[in-house]
Structures are given as structure tokens and as C-alpha cells.
């Protein structure tokens, strides 16, 4: 392959430029003399390690014990009805391990065994049915990777910079491969009547979490899922069965799914009237804003992932996603939106899934105002916060997909700021 691009923008040019400037850490280490960690035999190479039966279910090594979900104590009155946040600043690639994937509960995570699980489909159907878990897994299944994002992700940032870390500003999201049965398959078994225009999804937890979904979406890509990332759902993610509603706000992904009712109009329950509506500048609220618009965030550098290596070759990494399709491109700004450069997308972008982007550059040690801007497959461009506020005001909580800013200081530390 011929390197015809500007030096420093390809891996070859990037490393060549770094080596020429003497900026690589390995070069600095060699200049200080032999490194005993590579020249001398270390203790871990002088004795036997653990056997294959030491951990029947593998867990992360203790050196990574800091890579955990975190909650914000003052955000809710109790952790039973609360949220914790994915450590997106510690992860790479796109798939979120189940053990790190954020949780949102309305009455706590319940224990429901497979033999006790039932799913009832009733209402405007020809044949009301009740499925057991064994019934469910006899149907043809599909595997799809989708992101789940809480509608309140970034909600604290509407009025200004609040939480110092992308885990807290954007961590109400995860991206997993789900295995399940298309809901349309189960509805076909029951036979939806012509007047059936909506479906109500209800969970088995004490909150009886429920949401109305238009029949068009229900018959499209909604899954009744029983596995994530190849294994059974975790308790906190709705074990044994949950709903997957691709591209739509996480509140609709009902966990511990127990009931699907077909009706001719929306039910307008609590979570779609007093909650999960968008308050506008004039005090009125919009409903039925289900889709999650294109959004992105730089995960590193960020407040929880500062630059520690000093000036020289630096990798900016982040995530982009859209509930309306795939990600077409991502732009990165080093100066608060004055100038934009195209980031490198890693692999093909999948529909309604997280996409990883990178931007490599030589940092000269000066201050940065880092921003990212996503463009999805529909041509939609992620807006600035000012553009959002001109339409929505600052009284909202949900669907904040405005461009975010990290102020990187000369010492490499980063802070959540807003540019006015």
C-alpha cells in the first residue's frame, strides 16, 4: 500500500513523525538505559500460574477492578429506583460487557426463574396465548447488535456543564448483541386483529413497568430477547426475558417482560405522560419522541481518562450512534468547533448500534477544547447545544444529543465545560 496522505494522518506517517521527533515513550525508555522489566526474568515467569479450573466463570483480573458501573448518590432518593453508568471511558471497541452495562430500575432488579416466567399475549388478537420459556426458545431466533440509551442520558447537561466525566454525562448507554425472537413472530401466532394499532408492553417487576408501542414498530425490528453477548441476560438486564426496541429510548425496552396487549390506541400510562416527555421552552411537553437522534462523545481524553504521556502522538477515541440508522461520519474539533477534521471510523457502521471512532494527532501540549460531531445515514448532523436550546429551552431532561466539550489543560487533565 502506498502512503500518499499527509504525514501523521496514517499509521505509518503517524509513527514515523513521532519517531523523528523523539516523542515515543519507548524511545525515551531506551535512552535511560536497559529496562529490567524486559531485560531480566520476572517473578511471573519463574513459577506456575493458575490452572484452567481456577475460575469456572472467568472474571476480569483484579488489576481492572476500577472498571465498574458507578451511580451518583444525589441523583435519586434511593438506588431501588435509580440508574448507574457504564464506564465508557475505560472501554474500547463497541461491545459492552454485560457486567459493565448500565442499569435502570423502577422497583429494583428482581429474581425470576425460567420455569416461573410466562408471557401473555392478549387484547385485540384472534387467539390469546401464554408462552413458557421452553415455548419461546422453540421459535426461530435472530442475533442483532443494538445500543440501548436512556432518554435521560446527558439530561443533567441541559442547563450547563454539570458532571465531570463521560461515564456520568453519557454513560446511560450500552451496546450488546441480543439473541431473541422477533415480536412479529409471536404476534403472528396470536393473530392481530385489523383494528389492532398499538401494543402495550408490561414487565413483571413491582413497578409493572409499561409502555405503548405503535404496531408498525412492533411488527418491524422489536425482539423478545433471552440472551446478550452470547450468554443469558443478567438479572439486572431483565433475566430471563426482556424486550429490545432498536433505536428507541431505553425506557421502552421493558425488562422481565410478562404481558403484551394489543389495542386500538395508546394506553398513556405513567411512563409516557408524567415521565419520558420533553418539556419545551413554553412549558408544554412533547410526547411520543421515541427515537434517539444521532449523538457522539469523546471518551478519551476526558475527565476520567486524562492524557498522561505528555506531548507527542495522541489518540482521541470516542463513540457515535443513531437511533435512525448507521453512522456515516464523525468530525472532531480541537478548538471548540472553530475547525473540524474527519475522524477515522473503525469498521463498518451497523444500524442502530454504537460505532467507534479515532483521531490521531501530535499534541503539542497546548490547551484543547475537544468536541465530536456525528452524521448519520439519513444525513442528520448532531446539533450544538445552542441549536437544541433554541427549540427546546433548558427545562427538559430527555433527548439531549448536543455536542459536548472537554477542556484539556496543558497538564493533560480534562474538565467538562460549555462554550458560550
Topology of helices and strands:
Elements: H1 11-20, H2 25-31, H3 36-39, E1 70-71, E2 84-85, E3 118-123, E4 129-132, H4 133-136, E5 142-149, H5 166-170, E6 173-182, H6 183-190, E7 198-203, E8 210-214, H7 215-218, E9 223-228, E10 231-232, E11 242-244, E12 257-263, E13 278-279, E14 285-286, E15 295-300, E16 312-321, E17 327-333, E18 341-342, E19 344-345, E20 355-363, E21 368-376, H8 385-392, E22 405-408, E23 414-417
Parallel strand pairs: 3-12
Antiparallel strand pairs: 1-2, 3-4, 5-6, 6-9, 7-8, 7-12, 9-10, 9-11, 13-14, 15-16, 16-20, 17-18, 17-21, 19-20, 21-22, 22-23
Provide an overview of this structure.
The structure is a single chain. With 420 residues, the chain is an alpha+beta fold. The chain is globular and about 80 Å long. A hairpin with a 2-residue loop joins β9 and β10. The strands form 6 sheets. It has a 5-stranded mixed beta sheet with strand order 4-3-12-7-8. Strands 5, 6, 9, 10 and 11 form a 5-stranded antiparallel beta sheet that branches. The chain folds into 2 domains: 217 residues, Oxidoreductase, molybdopterin-binding domain (Sulfite Oxidase, Chain A, domain 2, Alpha-Beta Complex); 123 residues, Immunoglobulin-like (Sandwich). The N terminus is likely disordered.
Supply the helix-strand structural class.
Answer: alpha+beta
Strand content: 25-35%
Percentage of residues assigned to helices: 10-25%
Shape: globular
Assembly of the depicted chains: single chain
Number of strands: 23
Q: What gap, in angstroms, lies between the N and C termini? A: 44 Å
Protein name: Sulfur dehydrogenase subunit SoxC
Pfam family, one: Mo-co_dimer
Cofactor: Mo-molybdopterin
Keywords: Metal-binding, Molybdenum, Oxidoreductase, Signal
Amino acid at each position: 500500500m502506498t502512503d500518499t496522505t499527509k504525514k501523521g494522518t496514517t499509521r505509518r506517517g503517524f509513527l514515523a513523525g513521532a519517531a523523528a521527533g523523539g516523542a515515543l515513550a519507548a524511545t525515551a525508555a531506551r535512552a535511560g538505559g536497559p529496562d529490567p522489566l524486559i531485560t531480566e526474568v520476572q517473578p511471573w515467569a519463574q513459577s506456575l500460574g493458575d490452572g484452567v479450573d481456577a475460575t469456572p466463570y472467568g472474571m476480569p483480573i483484579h488489576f481492572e477492578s476500577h472498571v465498574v458501573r458507578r451511580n451518583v448518590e444525589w441523583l435519586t432518593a434511593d438506588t431501588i429506583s435509580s440508574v448507574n453508568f457504564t464506564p465508557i471511558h475505560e472501554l474500547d471497541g463497541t461491545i459492552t460487557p454485560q457486567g459493565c452495562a448500565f442499569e435502570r430500575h423502577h422497583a429494583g432488579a428482581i429474581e425470576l426463574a425460567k420455569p416461573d416466567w410466562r408471557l401473555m399475549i392478549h387484547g385485540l388478537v384472534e387467539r390469546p396465548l401464554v408462552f413458557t420459556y421452553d415455548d419461546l426458545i422453540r421459535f426461530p431466533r435472530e442475533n442483532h447488535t443494538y445500543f440501548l440509551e436512556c432518554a435521560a442520558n446527558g439530561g443533567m447537561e441541559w442547563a450547563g456543564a454539570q458532571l465531570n466525566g463521560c461515564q456520568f454525562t453519557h454513560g446511560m448507554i450500552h451496546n450488546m448483541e441480543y439473541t431473541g425472537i422477533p415480536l412479529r413472530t409471536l404476534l403472528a401466532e396470536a393473530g392481530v386483529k385489523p383494528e389492532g394499532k398499538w401494543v402495550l408492553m408490561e414487565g413483571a417487576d413491582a413497578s409493572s413497568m409499561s409502555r405503548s408501542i405503535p404496531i408498525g414498530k412492533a411488527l418491524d425490528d422489536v425482539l423478545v430477547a433471552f440472551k446478550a453477548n452470547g450468554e443469558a441476560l443478567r438479572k439486572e438486564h431483565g433475566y430471563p426475558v426482556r424486550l429490545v426496541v432498536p433505536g428507541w429510548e431505553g425506557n421502552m425496552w421493558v425488562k422481565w417482560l410478562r404481558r403484551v396487549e394489543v389495542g386500538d390506541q395508546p394506553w398513556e400510562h405513567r411512563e409516557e405522560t408524567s415521565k419520558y416527555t420533553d418539556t419545551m421552552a413554553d412549558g408544554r411537553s412533547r410526547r411520543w419522541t421515541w427515537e434517539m437522534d444521532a449523538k457522539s462523545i469523546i471518551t478519551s481524553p476526558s475527565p476520567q481518562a486524562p492524557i498522561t504521556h505528555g506531548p507527542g502522538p495522541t489518540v482521541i477515541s470516542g463513540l457515535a450512534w443513531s437511533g435512525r440508522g448507521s453512522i456515516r461520519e464523525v468530525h472532531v474539533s480541537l478548538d471548540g468547533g472553530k475547525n473540524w477534521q474527519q475522524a477515522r471510523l473503525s469498521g463498518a457502521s451497523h444500524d442502530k448500534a454504537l460505532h467507534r471512532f479515532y483521531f490521531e494527532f501530535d499534541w503539542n501540549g497546548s490547551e484543547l477544547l475537544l468536541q465530536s460531531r456525528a452524521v448519520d445515514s439519513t444525513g442528520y448532523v448532531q446539533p450544538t447545544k445552542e441549536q437544541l436550546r433554541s427549540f427546546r429551552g433548558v427545562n427538559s431532561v430527555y433527548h439531549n444529543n448536543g455536542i459536548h466539550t472537554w477542556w484539556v489543560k496543558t497538564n493533560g487533565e480534562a474538565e467538562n465545560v460549555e462554550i458560550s
